[in-house]
């Protein structure tokens, strides 16, 4: 009867002072800060766990792709499964309009299992996530409570420690992980993949993912709402380490328009927003291709201010962010990086210096192409226009080949006129600084065995004969 009374209020849409209670999980009110605070004036109450049919699917090295559904309500399902209390456990939590039964959530578990012997649990709450965005915002409180209940059950039956748990959530799933972490102290790590912005940006920490939700919280912002742009993610920092790839708002390679706040799952699953979990996935395979540089703003990063990494190194965005020694030094540390437009998205930032020799002044341009055993990159422009012998040309490049695997660097130029003079142009010095495992390494390619050698004229060759 009470339930129906509450439901009646919910349907009528009154907002203040209501409460709903669910066995096992406790009560949920819509008192502040859950509604009626700046950033979330109007909300409602979460649906019941039964209504949402929340499912935990276990993936281990034994199960492979044939996951086992386990439940904290009937803990014998956990004991009879391949869950091992001797391993760490990761929970992967999807967001609005998505699913945990297939797609990126499952692929993430399968890839994690290739590099770590863990219990990977795909959390599915499809039926709580397929209504309106606002209903999903309310529902994550129950999903977070269910995840917490599951962890408490593990504690009870195995004396399992929260310190062996990593929660990874995308969009609303990131705040779901935060809610679970608020309810269970001592979770080792929460990774927020573009935590949802609408109804969370600017709200009190209880409501959203924040650094107090786990021992370590790392965040990737890929569609951060930042006026005048419209985004699905949060702009503000919300972890210990907050990464803003490509500035955090618009991702290269995404051709769709900035997704608008429409209640349309295909738009909500927009390319920019999804990049956060794609980056995380690829970071498992290319850890050093995701170094983040500490900077105050993206503009400052773009101009080269925060390169190379300091003595303490730089964190790797994504899976290996927890390897950063200074990760807990303070909360809300901002890191910037650029990615490529296509998978695997990894790039290695390098600062290139070229000093020319030969002619005094010449019109043309200099480009670099990096080669490894598998192929070569696009051309990166170092300088164009009037080139002068006295000047050192400097450029920051985000190169799609790991400097460790670089076999050859090719110099290309456009020949304009005075072909004979061009033939006498070379590079006196070529230096490249790159961050190796986070530390700056300077390589002098003019004498480096990787190819250029002292006879620099060989490496400069004519590309196009414009003149
Ligand atoms: C609830 O989830 C379970 C496990 O995935 C599934 O077998 C069942 O069909 C779902 N129930 C509904 C009503 O969708
Ligand atoms: C895992 O199984 C699902 C169907 O259950 C399939 O769609 C997916 O491609 C499989 N993934 C891998 C990596 O085999
Ligand atoms: C609990 O799960 C086991 C399978 O692990 C099943 O045999 C049993 O019937 C379940 N109990 C209840 C009450 O659902
Ligand atoms: C659990 O994860 C931590 C951090 O990655 C690692 O140091 C530890 O060895 C892992 N434990 C097991 C049993 O694999
Ligand atoms: C959500 O999914 C369930 C099960 O597939 C369906 O019964 C329900 O109508 C869906 N809700 C909406 C709002 O689409
Ligand atoms: C962003 O975070 C800072 C520090 O936590 C806080 O002072 C500020 O009010 C936040 N801004 C918004 C818009 O949430
Ligand atoms: C949702 O977005 C897709 C792709 O943009 C579009 O085809 C579809 O018509 C939209 N649906 C609604 C209900 O707006
Ligand atoms: C060199 O060639 C490239 C590619 O054709 C072109 O974009 C660039 O403008 C040329 N530079 C000069 C200085 O002609």
TrEMBL record:
Keywords: Calcium, Disulfide bond, Lipid degradation, Lipid metabolism, Metal-binding, Secreted, Signal. GO terms for biological process: lipid catabolic process. It is found in: Secreted. Residues 1-17 form the signal peptide. Its EC number is 3.1.1.3. Residues 18-345 form the Lipase domain. The keyword Cytoplasm does not apply. InterPro entries: AB_hydrolase_fold, Lipase, Lipase_LIPH, Lipase_N, Lipase_panc, PLAT/LH2_dom_sf, TAG_lipase. PANTHER family: LIPASE, PANCREATIC LIPASE-RELATED PROTEIN 3. It catalyses: a triacylglycerol + H2O = a diacylglycerol + a fatty acid + H(+). GO terms for molecular function: lipoprotein lipase activity; metal ion binding. It holds the Pfam family Lipase. GO terms for cellular component: extracellular region. This is Triacylglycerol lipase. The active site is at 171 (nucleophile), 194 (charge relay system), 273 (charge relay system). The keyword Secreted applies. Belongs to the AB hydrolase superfamily. Lipase family.
